[in-house]
From TrEMBL:
It comes from Daphoenositta chrysoptera. This is Coagulation factor XIII A chain. Residues 1-32 are annotated as: Disordered. It comes from the Eukaryota. Ca(2+) binds at residues 443, 445, 492, 497. One of its GO terms (cellular component) is cytoplasm. SUPFAM superfamilies: Cysteine proteinases (SSF54001), E set domains (SSF81296), Transglutaminase, two C-terminal domains (SSF49309). Tetramer of two A chains (F13A1) and two B (F13B) chains. Its EC number is 2.3.2.13.
Length: 735
């Protein structure tokens, strides 16, 4: 009985003994603000109409008007006022009579959340003064005419990011008169990379245009030998996307008072982007089955994902690393934090973070999948966000790694970052957050280790250059690739690189030294492995080359294992086994070709068409083992996109998508997606089947809204074939 009464009491009282007021972590909730706040008893003859009264507030919120132009927010497809913090904006107030500064007294109030408090930055009263101080809240009159005044308002450079409610309060002798709640005067305040006092200030205009204002980007994938690229629509200015991004912070229960801090925002966002442990935005799936959801490769951008999550409040299925990174990039750019998407080729997923990835070999020199727990991802995508780091020593601001892909837990949740890129390069991995994990992703060594019968481990080979071979992002102002490997690490083998490694080890990154294990490699024979470029559905050959630099004759028992892998380096199946004995004459080279037939790999092929080859060779005379591994990716056919009609804003045009099936089989249950920010919202279409060698044509009519250079992006997905993309740049003319 007592239990039931206590629960009813709890329902009545949302408070607990620890807090005076409940947590204020929703930007959506509101409190009620009285229109008349009396100071005491009101005399009978009091008529509020006798006093100064606000008739209307004009916000200058149209895209072509001064506020959105000066604040670089004119691209947001949102009818309300959107400004950036630390920079003045204007509003005009119309009163019922001319304003008399000698006797009339009024002020502005900006409120956020259910429990606005001045010391938390969620209740901001602004009295009109004579000067605006940079970086502080204030307002001054810049123009008076008839019954109206125009105000210039300055927001603080540390102000909370989100949607504020605006009230105008007028003082009368008997109480305060306020304007009625009017959502049309709501004001969004965002980060300001154009303002020197803002924590996200970026000093290069071209970089700001790329990292804040560009709504399409490039994802680099494939592998280091065969780099592929595809476009991704970030769409941070599309309708409702800003509200969806603010909702993510509510979902993560980030206290409103913490939302002016980009470090906090990045940290909670890296957890809420994935669905692990908090029902976040995207559910990951790496097992090639995507029931009741969309295959990760089919998405063409972030907008559909964010809007679906915003309306359903349930994780959207499914994503892999570039989808998490694409959506995270949209979130950051939308709020005004400069951000870019990064690809690390040959990324180490080191389960015990000891900077050493162990590949265990069995007696024959084959990789033992039972013992091998670490994996090398062909590539892994994460994000960098630009900000100062006042929580770290000087010099660690700038680009910070943030990663929304759920790989390992950090402080009990699947999240990663922000970790300073500069700290990772110099090995200062003691600085928060998650620097050791990122350091291992770009710096591990691969150890080929053989387990002897008595349990001792013999190291047969060490590869120090395979991990983090290439780190790239899209170039500023173009679609090309920018190599940023040097931002993360010193040149392989240089003194600085060794020093950074020793620093990282000193700060607690575990590294087993080679001295712990016996290691005497075969130095007088070299083995190399090359795979021919191949198109999906065709045969191709691989070549193993031995170079015997000694004066001895050797025979090498060689084993080639071809595996179909997920892009995460995890094997799905071995489709090719081939052994041969190679006679190696003194001081000479010899090559061996092995043909890989399409019939051997097509039935098991995974969506990224990735293969992973292991070659191990035992030199019979010495018993030593040579090992090499290489990932290779097939060429996947592309979609062709054309346009028909005039390309003019406000006029109907046609987009035509074509695809020819190159496989020796019929494609079934094919889904096409097409989108282009500012030209058309995402459209999907199902096609039953495409017979081999036949061509599918799909025509879509649309009316582009905005002039300028735009990008159309299309994808095709079906069970037999994924990662099929096409894109087209279109110049939309002014009407």
């Amino acid at each position: 009985m007592s239990e039931t009464t206590s629960t009813t009491e709890e329902k009545k009282l949302p408070l607990n003994g620890r807090r005076a007021i409940p947590p204020n972590n929703s930007n959506d909730e509101e409190n009620e603000v009285p229109e008349m706040e009396a100071f005491g008893l009101i005399p009978r003859g009091f008529n509020p109409r006798d006093y100064l009264r606000v008739e209307d507030i004009y916000m200058f919120k149209e895209p072509h008007e001064i506020n959105k132009q000066e604040h670089h927010t004119d691209k947001y497809y949102n009818p309300k006022l959107i400004v950036r913090r630390g920079q003045a904006f204007q509003i005009q107030i119309y009163f019922n009579r001319p304003y008399k500064p000698e006797t009339d007294q009024f002020w502005l109030e900006y409120l956020m959340g259910r429990y606005p408090q001045q010391n938390k930055g969620t209740y901001i009263p602004i009295v009109v003064g004579n000067v605006l101080k940079p970086g502080q809240w204030g307002a001054k009159i810049i123009h008076r005419e008839n019954n109206s005044i125009r105000l210039s308002i300055m927001s603080s450079t540390t102000c909370i990011i989100g949607k504020f409610r605006l009230y105008v309060a007028v003082l009368t002798p008997f109480g305060i008169l306020r304007t009625r709640r009017n959502s049309a005067t709501d004001t969004y305040i965002l980060f300001n990379p154009w303002c020197q006092l803002d924590a996200v200030y970026l000093d290069d205009e071209k970089e700001r245009e790329e990292y804040v204002l560009n709504d399409v980007g490039i994802v680099f994938h494939g592998n280091v030998e065969d780099i592929k690229s595809r476009s991704w629509s970030y769409g941070q200015f599309e309708e409702n996307v800003l509200d969806a991004c603010l909702f993510l912070m509510d979902k993560a229960e980030l206290e409103l008072s913490g939302r002016g801090n980009p470090i906090k925002i990045c940290r909670v966002a890296s957890a809420v982007i994935n669905s692990r442990d908090d029902n976040g935005v995207i559910a990951g799936s790496w097992n090639n089955t995507y029931d009741y959801g969309v295959a990760p490769s089919a998405w063409t951008g972030s907008v559909d994902i964010l809007l679906e999550y915003y309306s359903s409040k349930q994780p959207v299925r499914y994503g892999q690393c570039w989808v998490f990174a694409g959506v995270f990039n949209t979130f950051l750019r939308c709020l005004g934090i400069p951000a870019r998407l990064i690809t690390n080729y040959s990324s180490a997923h080191d389960n015990n973070a000891n900077l050493r990835l162990d590949f265990f070999l069995d007696d024959e020199g084959k990789v033992d999948t039972r013992l091998t727990k670490d994996s090398v991802w062909n590539y892994h995508c994460w994000n960098e966000a630009w900000m100062t780091r006042p929580d770290l020593p000087v010099g660690f601001g700038g680009w910070q790694v943030v990663d929304g892909t759920p790989q390992e837990t950090s402080d009990g949740m699947y999240r990663c970052g922000p970790a300073s890129v500069q700290a990772i390069k110099h090995g200062h991995v003691c600085f928060q957050f998650d620097a050791p994990f990122v350091y291992a992703e770009v710096n591990g060594d691969i150890f080929y280790t053989k387990m002897e019968k008595n349990g001792t481990q013999v190291v047969e080979g060490i590869d120090t250059t395979h991990i983090g071979q290439l780190i790239v992002t899209k170039e500023v102002g173009g679609d090309g690739m920018m190599n940023i490997t040097e931002e993360y690490k010193f040149r392989e083998g240089s003194d600085e690189e060794r020093l950074a490694l020793e620093t990282a080890v000193m700060y607690g990154v575990k590294k087993q030294s080679v001295q712990d294990t016996t290691y005497q490699p075969q130095t007088d024979v070299e083995m190399d492995f090359q795979a021919q470029k191949a198109v999906l559905g065709n045969d191709f050959k691989v070549t193993i080359t031995f170079k015997n630099k000694s004066r001895n004759s050797y025979t090498a028992t060689t084993y080639l294992s071809g595996n179909i892998v997920f892009y995460t380096g995890v094997t799905k199946s071995e489709f090719k086994k081939h052994s041969f004995s190679a006679k190696l004459e003194p001081s000479s080279s010899r090559s061996f070709d092995v043909v890989i037939r399409s019939s051997e790999y097509m039935s098991d092929l995974l969506e990224q068409a990735s293969f992973h080859f292991f070659v191990t060779a035992r030199i019979n005379e010495t018993g030593k083992i040579l090992a090499v591994q290489k990932a290779t990716v097939l060429e996947i056919p592309t979609l062709r996109i054309k346009t028909k009609g005039e390309l003019v804003a406000g006029k109907e045009m046609s987009v035509i998508v074509e695809f020819t099936n190159p496989l020796k089989q019929t494609l079934e249950n094919v889904t096409l997606r097409l989108e282009g920010p500012g030209v058309l919202r995402t459209i999907k279409k199902q096609f039953g089947r495409i017979p081999m060698n036949s061509t599918l044509t799909w025509e879509v009519k649309c009316t582009p809204m905005r002039p300028g250079l735009r990008k159309l992006i299309a994808s095709l997905s079906c069970d037999a074939l994924r990662h099929v993309y096409g894109e087209l740049n279109v110049q939309i003319q002014k009407p």
